[in-house]
Amino acid sequence: MHTKDGVRPAYAEIERWLRATLREELDRKRHVAELLFRRIGITFAVYGEGGDPERLIPFDIIPRIIARSEWERLSAGLRQRVRALNAFLADVYGKQEILRAGKVPTALVLENEGYRQEMAGIAPPGGVYTHVAGIDMVRTAPDEFYVLEDNCRTPSGVSYMLENREAMLRLFPRLCARHKVAPVGRYPEELLETLKAVAPARAGGAPCVVLLTPGPYNSAYYEHCFLADEMGVEVVEGADLFVQDLVVYMRTTAGPRRVDVIYRRIDDEYLDPQAFRPDSLVGVPGLMAAYRAGNVALANAPGAGIADDKAIYPYVPEMIRFYLGEAPLLANVPTFLCEREEDRKYVLSHLDTLVVKLAKGSGGYGMLIGPHATLAQRQEFHARILAKPGDYIAQPTLALSTCPTMVEQGIAPRHVDLRPFILSGREIRIIPGGLTRVALREGSLVVNSSQGGGTKDTWILEDEAPTEAPSQGQSQSRWVAG
């Protein structure tokens, strides 16, 4: 919200609102928001813990503001990046030109568990592999955004983006009205149009789209049901589908119905027991054969995970140059690959300053934040890296930007990131904004919901100035930090 020169223009009205609003009123609104989210059932499952794993994701009532000029720069870079990632997927499952050119190490791709040999030679409908991408961004200075990681498999969180906006409109209608905030409510419609656009060509009727979920025990099951309901499509489990003569059908009370597009929220290895794990009970036997025959579209395509592997991430700028002939518009965070001897030596001697991550990890698990780690923790990771260097990458500890956040002590700065969602079909669509995740613990850099993080509504301003003057007459409060 602040720079060294004062309040950023996009935040001017929010800053005035915070100073004019009593602490008690914001505490009451925060309590109402919690009741609202609990009543709706917006939860996130946390595995590996005793008791009930279902948790309410904390929602912060102070929005994160991004000016339109900033968003335009970001969205241009996001479009470019997703185009390159799709081109990379088409190439590594096809001619493998980038490997032959030596721009990406062949072994890093072909020996990676994210590379699915079953996809080799398959041209998916519409030529699109990652239909829904979530690109995690961090800000380190007023004009500096970095891509932290790419999510090309089954990125989650969009339902929270939509519910956060609904909550803000209900809790603070006057504040929302004073800003020209770009709407996000069209996302389900845009998603459905994207999915229909890649349906295999066949005569007769609109494409039949379904959302395939592994079931109610999945951590993002709420989102699966929410999105299916918003799109007006069926949410199905593996037992609801069957394959006959290389065509996928859905069981209905009116008899079998042909399925054209499956928005799958199941990991690759469980998707089809005949192609991947034979012990999978949540997949659809024969699905990959129907996909290979071109009779059904899968979004996202199996094998898309090779594009978001953390060991592949450092090569995305080179992908952009190789496939698009353009300079990258968004910068990567400098990354050390521990399988490289030179990088490994540097990482092992600088564990106190680096963030170390599992190359295949997600959700904030298996991570060391060097400056905040104990000596014993750094020694443990030193041994892990020596034992399996290919499993780890490391990055410098970034000075992540903070946003004003409502915590128990009042309003205080907390670190945030941003996950915009990019849709690829006949065209690339980006809903303005995304999911802002916030590290609620003081000083924490880990924003993941599974690690105690929360979320904020993200406002992309159509106008960088409020549409009317703020209301007057309320008492000034002195509890705003900073």
From TrEMBL:
Residues 469-482 have a biased composition (Polar residues). Pfam families: CP_ATPgrasp_2. It comes from the Bacteria. Residues 63-439 form the Circularly permuted ATP-grasp type domain. Residues 448-482 are annotated as: Disordered. Gene3D superfamilies: 3.30.1490.270, 3.40.50.11290. This is Circularly permuted type 2 ATP-grasp protein.
